[in-house]
Automatic annotation (TrEMBL):
InterPro entries: EOBI/EOBII-like_plant, Homeodomain-like_sf, Myb_dom, SANT/Myb. This is Uncharacterized protein. It is found in: Nucleus. Residues 114-152 are annotated as: Disordered. Gene3D superfamilies: Homeodomain-like. One of its GO terms (molecular function) is DNA-binding transcription factor activity. Keywords: DNA-binding, Nucleus, Repeat, Transcription, Transcription regulation. Residues 8-60, 61-111 form the Myb-like domain. It comes from Gossypium trilobum. Residues 8-64, 65-115 form the HTH myb-type domain. The lineage of its organism: Eukaryota, Viridiplantae, Streptophyta, Embryophyta, Tracheophyta.
Amino acid sequence: MTVWGAPKQAWRKGPWTHEEDKLLAEYVTFHGEGRWSSVARSTGLNRSGKSCRLRWVNYLRPGLKRGHITPQEEGIMVELHALWGNKWSTIAKYLPGRTDNEIKNYWRTHFMKKERSAQRQQKRKALKLKQQPPQPNKEETAVGDGGGATDHEGRMCEEAATLLDEYLMNEGLWWNQQQQANNIAMQMQQVACNCYGGGVISNGGYIF
């Protein structure tokens, strides 16, 4: 219990020494994790319980991984962060050997910088689009440049070609019918000549 007016204990801060790490490791090995407030009384360390816990969890705990985060670990980190957000201690449970503090620092160093860079690029693109003059409509440009007239002329040519084909087909049909009529008239004229001794008056292939 803190007495009113008594100065608070001035805990040591700064880098840990090798002797302090050894005392903390021996204490945790004997008493286990979780009793951080009693470390100072039991070992004589002039460190707060919070400082002892962070030192053990982040640096002295057996099984800690050293070195860079692997691509596989990074992928797990991204997936779990999408589920739980900044719950670093929960994410650390799925990355054996990695501490929550290490994961948090890695995320802030790498991913937050990438997100900010992407956001800045999007803002620059949007600003460029606003500064550019509006582009004319392609269809309107084609009509204004005579593209519409060209299309109209093309349709007129197609219609004219169709009419010409129909005319030629009808003309050929009429020509065939006329030829057949002339052939029949000539045959009838020959028959009449044979019957009446040639006394038949013909006018344009028809008998009168």
